[in-house]
Amino acid sequence: MARIFNFSAGPSMLPVETLQEAAEKLVEFDNTGMSLIEMSHRGKTYESVHNETISLVRELLAVPNNYHILLLQGGATLQFGMVPLAFLRQGTTASYILTGSWAKKAHDDAKIVGTTSVIWDGKADNYTRIPAQSELNIPSDAAYVHICSNETIGGIQWATFPDTGGVPLIADMSSDILSRPLPWDKIDMVYAGTQKNLAPAGMALVIMSDRLAKAARTDLPAYLRYDLHIQNNSLYNTPPSFVVWMTGLTLKWVKSIGGLQEIERRRDEKARMLYGMIDCSGGFYRNPVDKESRSMMNVVWRLPSEELEEKFIKEAKQEGLDGLKGHRSVGGCRASIYNAMPLAGVKALVQFMKHFMAKNG
Ligand code: PMP
Hints:
By secondary structure, the chain is an alpha/beta fold. 37% of the residues lie in helices and 15% in strands.
């Protein structure tokens, strides 16, 4: 087996244990004579996989009992629209904090649905930093405050969640879900596309407080109704059973290595190593992000010229280090070091960066 180090931003590397277990059981699942993805989602076998995934989310993220866990289709992008459709009623305003491309996309959808107010916009600094609490003026009557906890493209991350003074905080955690414990006393809802830290693409994990759920509109087409998904334990319609299963396998892997504590320890070690390399390169590699706001999941950097960046990406690929091209909207380089990226991958990347600098610096 020749698996390379895949630094792609998503879909991205999954734990090899997740892939192997899925491969072993793909054709016949637990003596049922069929694959899990061929069987009815109304049967006992699927139901137990479904419920196990949900209970592992609850356990690993320490989700309180008064929060609902939903497994929905449409990725994170559908949540950009579902959130305002459910919670941004006429006569109310939703507060958005713009930290980069993904927060802006969420806001673009909300603007179509209702009235929004941008309470902080990082545009002046080219989206290289997260605001301090003191810069946030959150209206106490806002329908909700929306943030993107980790900007996958810009490589910036909220190190701590803002205090919204009781206004429901909703966070797009697509690229840092399951990489950190969550302060539930500050958060009413998180959502995340599964294709980075959890599973293949095709699903969003949504976690929502009961007080927020109670405020959701019910006069919407069925799939857009959180209340229906909650009442039906995410089985209102046919669930993305393959992705639900794979999510459960990844969660089991996280549990087997020691849970979020170990995930955090590995995350810090990998990020420290990579940012350390950038910082000691005498400006050959440049990370544009404010140090306090650096992402622990998506590390971005520039080289002295675009030609060198192209050469870097090409030669790295030849060394088995793939997916290092920055997002097409910003260029440069980016290494996504999600939970499944082993330390050995980051070590190999840092080694390559040293050699490349010695030859081209
Ligand atoms: N939010 C963030 C932070 C993302 O990184 C992405 C995808 N890269 C999305 C939302 C969109 O997710 P999806 O493709 O699952 O709709």
